[in-house]
Amino acid sequence: MRSSPVSTSPLVPDNACLASEAASANPVTLRWRGREPYSDSFDAMRAFTDSRTPNTPDEIWLVEHPPVFTLGLAGDPAHLLVADSGIPLVKVDRGGQITYHGPGQVVAYLLLDLRRRKLMVREFVRRIEEGVIETLTSYNLASERKAGAPGIYVAAGPEDSDSRRDACNARNTHAGAKIAALGLKIRNGCSYHGVSLNVKMDLRPFLAINPCGYAGLETVDMACVGVAADWRDVAGTLATSLIHHIDGPCAAAAQTQAGIAA
User: What is the domain extent for residue 207?
Assistant: First the structure.
């Protein structure tokens, strides 16, 4: 059975929304870029950030990439365990080690002026993680942070004896596995790169790396823990949750959308 997101946000009175919208001087533009080679996204992110002015609107880009490994600025190439995998390796300027992007994974690139928003990096990371946790909760999937290891991980839950038992047991089997990865670059107070959430993908390439630099770290997607969800549905839910945590619930409801359908 295909899963649809369940709303977890409380209703906000109209007058509160009006106040929030009036107070929000920095709306986020949401761009659906569809499937795009990683190098195209990477070049576009840097060009966008380099050309920003104090008045440039913030944007979130939703992308799906063909298979690619990316290695962070201080990443150790030794974390690529299979040199001849046939998947290209791109060295990038974000933080973190090595990760994999591929079809069936939602990538949200966050091009925000943190200085204008008065957001410190640690708080920004916390809000991104909250957005992912809220997204997964809307599909009835519990997840959590791990101290010192940015990203989101499947949380264990009680055994269930009803019709959801198999899904619950699958989640417990994969408790502690990574389901979302996060990496950022901050330049002149502005962010780029972002967060990736595994929906339904070929997970075998993760076996060719130490994901995020952790040997033996299991990486899963929503499908293998019992959530059958559409990529575009998850992408939209994630974008709404990210904007909710960056700007508040009314800003998420009023987001500007642009770009192409995925």
Answer: 14-259
The pTM (predicted TM-score) of the whole model is 0.84
Give the separation between CA 22 and CA 36, rounded to whole angstroms.
35
Task: Note whether residue 7 is domain-resident.
Answer: no
Closest alpha carbon to 199 in 90, 111, 101, 86: 101
What's the domain count of the chain? 1
Residue 82 pLDDT greater than 60, yes or no: yes
37 domain-assigned: yes
Amino acid in position 76: D
The catalytic residue positions are: 212
**Model pLDDT for residues 212-246, shown as the tens digit of each residue:** 888 888 999 999 999 999 999 999 999 999 999 99
- Cα–chain center distance at 222: 13
Residue 118 burial class via C-beta count within 10 angstroms: exposed 0-12, middle 13-18, buried 19 and up: exposed
